[in-house]
Specification:
Pfam families: FlgD_ig. By secondary structure, the protein is mainly β. Helices cover 1% and strands 44% of the residues. The longest helix is centred in the first third of the chain and has 4 residues.
């Protein structure tokens, strides 16, 4: 392969950064559209998404609000009428972003399964793949799948989905290591004073088969109630849930280092418990 200035395009004004992190192409109406994610290297340039439709003779940046680690594309006849051949998905540091008009306008697609099983708005997305009408997305927070082009999601954070508190069944997924586990916390240990949100709080995982009102309580080693994370909150059945604890007590003070216990109870008397270690 050989390159020349004539067929590599004029990049001086229209190429945000000098480090290319992704390149993909899509044929739309008989014309090949090439998409490139770029970002600065050693401080030169800016983050952005670039595009050419004339084999690299000319380039334009479609946005400098987002970078791109990966691209995927919609197709004609998609189950969502908003998705067409002109739809571009990009995995970016800001999350999953989409353009429905070949890059003229971009929006972030929020990824959440339920009110407490979701990716944070600033979760970095590294991979995106379209398989027929299914959208797959990967990040440092796990894997997500949407079968309706981003309207609803299933989130897979790990290999272990717990058995339900009330029926002892597993809603989603399998586990060959923790067959009897109904709840666990992760990360564990965790450090409330850390600046990184992924490690400054812990998530308590559980599942229910039937609609229930849930209470999650934290106790110290002596059995003293430290905080109720939720109290009598309604949770719909047939789902896995995660409740977050930031390592603070009822007065919003960070608790001392040590081992703490959590108990999950339903209004029907079902329960599960586990341990959490706080280390700062």
């Amino acid at each position: 392969i050989s390159w020349s200035p004539e067929n590599s395009g004029s990049l001086e004004d229209n190429w945000p950064g000098n480090f290319c992190t992704a390149v993909e192409h899509k044929v739309v109406d008989g014309k090949t559209h090439v998409w490139v994610g770029s970002q600065p290297f050693f401080g030169l340039g800016e983050y952005g998404i670039c595009h050419t439709e004339d084999d690299g003779i000319s380039w334009e940046y479609k946005t400098m609000d987002y970078n791109a680690w990966n691209f995927a594309f919609g197709h004609a006849g998609a189950s969502n009428p908003a998705v067409t051949d002109s739809t571009v998905f990009a995995a970016s540091d800001s999350g999953l972003v989409v353009s429905y008009d070949l890059g003229e306008n971009w929006d972030i697609i929020p990824i959440y399964e339920s009110e407490n099983l979701y990716w944070k708005s600033d979760t970095m997305v590294f991979g995106v793949l379209v398989v027929e009408d299914t959208l797959w997305v990967s990040s440092s927070d796990g894997l997500a799948k949407s079968e309706d082009w981003g309207k609803s999601w299933n989130i897979y954070r790990g290999v272990t989905r717990v058995k339900t508190l009330d029926k002892g069944k597993r809603n989603v997924g399998i586990s060959s290591f923790f067959d009897d586990v109904k709840t666990y916390a992760f990360p564990n240990p965790f450090s409330p004073r850390r600046l990184n949100d992924d490690y400054s709080r812990t998530r308590i995982q559980y599942a229910i088969t039937n609609n229930s009102k849930i209470t999650v309580s934290i106790y110290d080693f002596s059995g003293k109630l430290i905080k109720e994370i939720i109290s009598g909150e309604f949770r719909a059945g047939g789902r896995d849930y995660q409740e977050e604890w930031n390592g603070r007590d009822g007065d919003n003070e960070i608790v001392p280092n040590g081992v703490y216990f959590f108990i999950i109870k339903t209004n029907n008397g079902d329960s599960a418990r586990g341990k959490i270690m706080v280390i700062d």
